Amino acid sequence: MFEAEVNPSNIEQADLAVCIPSYNEADSIPFPTRQASEGLVHFFPEASSVIINGDNDSPDHTKEAFLATPTKVPKIYISTPPGVKGKGNNLRNLFRKVTELGAKAVVLVDADLKSITPEWIKHLAEPLFREFSFVAPLYVRHKYDGTMTHGIAYPLTRALYGRRVRQPIGGEFGFSGKLARVFLQSPIWDDAVAHFGIDLWMTTLALNSGASVCQSFLGRPKIHKPKDPAASLGSMFRDVVGTLFSLTAHFDSNWLRIKYSKPTAIFGFGLDESKAPPSMDLDSDRLLHEFRAGFSTHGEIWKTVLAKDICRKLFEIKEMKKSLFDFPTELWARILYDTAVAFREEACERPLILDALVPLYFGRTFGFVKKTKGMSTRQAEETLEEDCTIFEMTKPYLIKQWLGKDGKR
User: Given 69, 157, 363, 409, which is the most exposed site by the fewest CB atoms within 10 A?
Assistant: First the structure.
């Protein structure tokens, strides 16, 4: 039986809310719920707190599992209407609820987290009671966990908006009640944001709204349901990258003025390599196969979207032996920049443009895996930072393409 809201304690006001979006997470959600309760009780005993599950009317009894989890903090369950799916739709529901409650601070954590501790609540919420209004996570991850972040979201967000936010789509965030209202009232919304594009959307709106942004070190590696990019890309790629490109057009008056990036404040300690992230399997051979297969399925689209010299270089890379394979960072940056321009200009072709980018992303990911194979987590991070610097140095190419021959939008 559908219930839009279940509020057993009749909570009408809260200073601090921990929000957990979900869909079919009955087995997973009790753990982060318990950890959130312990964190709120231990670190914020004076605050009126609540834990809110924003669900998509899960048929696996996520609601019952959440409400049955023993906690010392009151809980509220809310749900989108039957048939309405998507993490973004969950979060919009949560933005509304925390605004109704008058929350001063909001913490967001994923329902499938296996490594969350009570300290995570402290690290994500505490900066909000100081001078910050948006908190992005900072944690150790396996060098091949989050390749969409490594290869696209982080370097592009950094180059465009001039701030080094390492995990713009991390899943765990903190934001002020005031910023929750900004999110709720934003007219920028589409189907991609309503699904997997929501994390990048929040980060980008925060960076462009004048919010005071920091990163918070969470103290241990993120452990959740890892995904092999070669095996389980699904609609996430189209949602995240489509949102990134859409927002590029919305905020071009801001990023066209930005030349270089600057560090973002870090709340807490730095990377602790003694706590190694769990290992993960990645099918690198499949990455290479999918890249090469893309020439027959998407080659014609590449010729219309990408510069001629880029296409020539791609054909050279295709013919490389596996042992010599290399996908230069500058080439990858120019591919993404050309694709961003095409995405703006060819609205009716956007799904095809995004699909055509997938094999190139596989090729770039294979190149990253090959280059960093023998590296430690820290060494791989240093390599990624070097890649981001190349993205920034290549940004004038994007500006020239974006403005066109007459130098105007």
Answer: 409
Quote the CA–CA distance of 220 and 113 in Å, as a whole number: 12
Mean pLDDT of 341-355: 93
Answer whether residue 166 shows pLDDT above 90: yes
CB 255 within 8 A of CB 161: yes
Sheet containing 173-176, strands listed edge to edge, beginning at the edge strand earlier in sequence: 5-6, 75-79, 49-55, 16-22, 105-108, 173-176, 134-138, 213-217, 266-267
Calculate the CA 44 to chain-centre distance.
27
- Per-residue confidence at 273, pLDDT binned at 50, 70, 90? very low
C-alpha–C-alpha distance, residues 194 and 236, integer Å: 11
Q: What is the DSSP letter of 69?
A: S
d(CA 93, CA 108): 13
At residue 313, the 3 state secondary structure works out as helix
Question: Domains, the chain, ranges and CATH?
Answer: 5-267 (3.90.550.10), 284-403 (no CATH)
Q: Are 156 and 207 in contact (CB under 8 A)?
A: no
Phi, psi torsion values for 296, nearest 5 degrees: -80, -30
Tens of pLDDT, residues 224-233? 665 545 555 7
Model confidence band, residue 274 (pLDDT cutoffs 50, 70, 90): very low
CA atoms of 105 and 103, how far apart (whole Å): 6
DSSP state of 157: H
Q: Is there a contact between 310 and 331 (Cβ–Cβ < 8 Å)?
A: yes
Burial state string for 26-46 with b = 16 or more CB within 10 A and e = fewer than 16: bebbbbbbbbbbbbbeebbee
Neighbours of 409 (CB within 10 A): 11
Of the chain, the percentage scoring pLDDT greater than 70 comes to: 93
